[in-house]
Design a protein that fits this description.
Helix content is about 50%, strand content about 10%. It is mostly helical. The radius of gyration is 18 Å and the shape is elongated.
Length: about 150
């Protein structure tokens, strides 16, 4: 979160609380359960792959901290990192489409990337996720030391 330098520490703390409350409210509205996630994957498969990608399970997991999603094509299972919860829908959809494509093409070869061309927000979603990774790598300076 960027905060204007002219804010006092008290204003900054108030602003951070207000923004965190807003983000929490937005996130609570956006978090899908596993059943809704499965339905969403089925809709995306139909829309972008003619229903050919048929996952047997789609669920959130908390043990993926370096990947956004994973897929086991032989089982038809898709797992999405809980870190995606609260991100924009188009980003979650991109990760779902990416993993659905793996049900059709296991690797990351040219055929796989051709499948992803069907999703119109691929580049935007990839850029968003790259930005999240870059932001996580930035040093986090406490507010008192920023001045």
């Amino acid at each position: 979160m960027l905060i204007p330098a002219r804010m006092s520490e008290a204003e900054e703390q108030r602003w951070v609380r207000v923004m965190l409350d807003k983000l929490a409210a937005q996130e609570s509205k956006r978090v899908l359960g596993d059943a809704e996630l499965t339905e969403r994957a089925e809709r995306l498969s139909e829309q972008y792959f003619g229903g050919r990608a048929r996952p047997t399970s789609v669920r959130w997991v908390t043990n993926q901290n370096t990947r956004w999603g994973s897929c086991t094509p032989s089982e038809g299972s898709i797992r999405l990192s809980h870190r995606l919860q609260g991100m924009p829908e188009y980003v979650v959809d991109y990760v779902l489409v990416h993993e659905l494509a793996h049900l059709l093409v296991p690797g990351h070869g040219p055929g796989f990337w051709r499948l992803l061309e069907a999703y119109p927000r691929t580049e935007r979603a990839r850029g968003y996720l790259e930005g999240v990774v870059a932001a996580d790598r930035l040093p986090h300076v406490p507010a008192a030391r920023r001045e």
